[in-house]
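Design job #97: recover the sequence.
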């Protein structure tokens, strides 16, 4: 879909207001076309010594038509504003829906700053074409058409000249627009880079100051800012060519009208009425021609912005529901009007996956997690631990093989329902700038106060919350800045537990808490999560030893599976990892005891 079709698509979403606006503009144009006739009669009448009453009647009609044109113009502008507001509203809604439906892979390859720019400033750039562009475009077209018709009626010779100069002005606007299109696209791209640089410096403010790289980041910002400035100046240079050209065109037509009309006036003094009338039309022609240039400019600006917006709107998510996807309602799989309890058995069957087509992270991974059991995943850095837990909720699609839950491929389930039954506590905790209550209840907004408190107690967070002046109504700050790392992790655990998932995934979720707190959390988890399939990525020995099964990964392959007792003697890699973690945590405990 090109930009023109896209603009009309959003215009027509408010077709009632669009039709009303068109009607008002047609009526306004009729008044606009009639007015010069009475101006000509009024001025021409002075020559023939017409009665004063005739002069006053003509003058009265001019005032009446001007007033009526003001009323209809105002009405059309109001309807145009309604069309514009609705078009922008629908466009914002569509792009937000498009962003929400995208898979994780889309955000991996799209810069956040560029995405923010497309959803905000790029849409703002379409305001002119959706608003005044519609009104002025219709108005200018009707007025130019009316002027040509009136010229044909009054002076056929001048009408040919008029068509030529109008055609030239339209060609000039097209030429300028063609030159401006890549410049405006460059403007939008550079503004997106500018936005992304600002976002990175705000989000990464701590890292920038930690390494004292403010000057480096400031220089990067200046480069993008200069690029945006240069593109903006270039657009003004080309756009400034149009207005003077229109004045020249109006002057040329005026000269022809006065010369030809003057010659005819010598032969027939009554021609003065036609000359004055046509001159009024010539002066009236300046506005629509000027507006055509502005509309073309607005369209090119909108085209550059909409080109980027369309990339988001037309992006299709990698993860989609099958036409006959199986729903999961209240923890039960619904198949052919029958319900089966979701138990949470997970099977990896010869799974291979890579974030890019030419590089596989996981290679032929196979293992089975019985329902209600706890499994710990260990491995060297980059072995694919986090990738495994990203595949279970279908954040990414496997390249080969299959992942099954309760003997069904996860691709057979409704994605939304599948994820609602999987609680995830990621290593990097993200919190919203809202109250503790709203952050905990984010996945279950209808949760009761007792449920929220219970989840907090399990996460060993309740006592801390009680010490806050506003308790559970305390605001955590942007990205949870008012909480410590351990507190954020515990809040994330509470958030995951609140939905009472059938499958719980903990990605190094207690790395920021002390040993005693971790012990309390683990004890409560064992109590409350009985019957829940739990997958843990951790470096805590106590957690590893407490798991029912352990999966050992190395370079994307499963090189060991079993209990701690089975692996400690039979698997060399597990023995090495375990001994390394044991010595590290033993030294840490001694250090903490010495400090105390």
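Job complete. Output follows.
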């Amino acid at each position: 879909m090109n930009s023109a079709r896209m603009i009309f698509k959003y215009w027509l979403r408010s077709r009632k207001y669009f039709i009303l606006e068109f009607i008002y503009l047609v009526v306004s144009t009729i008044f606009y076309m009639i007015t010069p006739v009475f101006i000509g009669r009024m001025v021409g009448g002075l020559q023939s010594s017409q009665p004063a009453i005739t002069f006053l009647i003509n003058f009265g009609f001019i005032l009446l038509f001007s007033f009526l044109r003001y009323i209809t113009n105002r009405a059309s502008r109001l309807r145009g504003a309604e069309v514009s507001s609705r078009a922008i509203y629908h466009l914002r809604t569509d792009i937000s829906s498009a962003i929400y439906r995208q898979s994780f892979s889309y955000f991996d390859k799209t810069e956040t700053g560029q995405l923010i720019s497309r959803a905000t400033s790029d849409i703002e750039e379409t305001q002119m074409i959706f608003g005044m562009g519609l009104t002025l475009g219709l108005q200018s077209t009707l007025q130019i058409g009316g002027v040509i018709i009136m010229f044909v009626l009054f002076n056929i010779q001048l009408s040919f000249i008029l068509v030529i100069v109008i055609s030239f002005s339209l060609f000039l606007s097209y030429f300028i627009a063609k030159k401006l299109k890549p410049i405006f696209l460059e403007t939008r791209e550079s503004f997106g880079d500018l936005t992304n640089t600002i976002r990175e410096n705000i989000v990464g403010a701590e890292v920038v100051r930690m390494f004292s790289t403010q000057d480096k980041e400031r220089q990067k910002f200046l480069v993008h800012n200069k690029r945006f400035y240069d593109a903006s100046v270039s657009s003004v240079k080309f756009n400034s060519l149009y207005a003077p050209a229109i004045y020249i065109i109006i002057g040329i037509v005026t000269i022809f009208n006065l010369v030809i009309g003057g010659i005819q006036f010598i032969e027939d003094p009554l021609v003065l009425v036609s000359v004055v009338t046509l001159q009024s039309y010539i002066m009236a022609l300046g506005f629509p021609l000027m507006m055509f240039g502005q509309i073309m400019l607005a369209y090119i600006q909108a085209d550059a912005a909409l080109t980027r917006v369309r990339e988001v709107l037309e992006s299709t998510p990698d993860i989609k529901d099958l036409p006959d996807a199986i729903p999961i309602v209240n923890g039960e799989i619904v198949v052919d009007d029958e319900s089966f309890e979701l138990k949470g058995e997970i099977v990896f069957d010869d799974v291979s996956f890579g974030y890019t087509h030419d590089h596989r992270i996981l290679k032929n991974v196979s293992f089975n997690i019985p329902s209600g059991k706890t499994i710990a995943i260990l491995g060297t850095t980059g072995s694919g631990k986090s990738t495994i837990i990203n595949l279970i909720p279908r954040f990414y699609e496997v390249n080969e093989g299959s992942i099954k839950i309760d003997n069904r491929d996860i691709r057979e389930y409704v994605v939304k329902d599948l994820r609602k039954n999987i609680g995830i506590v990621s290593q990097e905790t993200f919190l919203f700038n809202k109250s503790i209550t709203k952050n905990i209840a984010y996945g279950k907004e209808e949760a009761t106060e007792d449920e929220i408190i219970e989840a907090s107690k399990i996460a060993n967070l309740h006592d801390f919350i009680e010490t806050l002046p506003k308790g559970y109504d305390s605001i955590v700050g942007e990205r949870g800045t008012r909480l410590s790392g351990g507190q954020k992790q515990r809040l994330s655990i509470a958030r995951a537990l609140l939905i009472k998932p059938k499958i719980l995934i903990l990605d190094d979720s207690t790395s920021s808490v002390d040993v005693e707190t971790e012990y309390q959390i683990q004890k409560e988890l064992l109590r409350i999560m009985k019957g829940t399939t739990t997958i843990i990525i951790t470096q805590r020995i106590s957690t590893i030893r407490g798991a029912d099964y352990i999966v050992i990964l190395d370079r994307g392959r499963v090189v060991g599976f079993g209990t701690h007792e089975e692996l400690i003697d039979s698997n060399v890699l597990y023995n090495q990892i375990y001994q390394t973690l044991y010595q590290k945590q033993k030294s840490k405990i001694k250090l903490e005891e010495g400090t105390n």
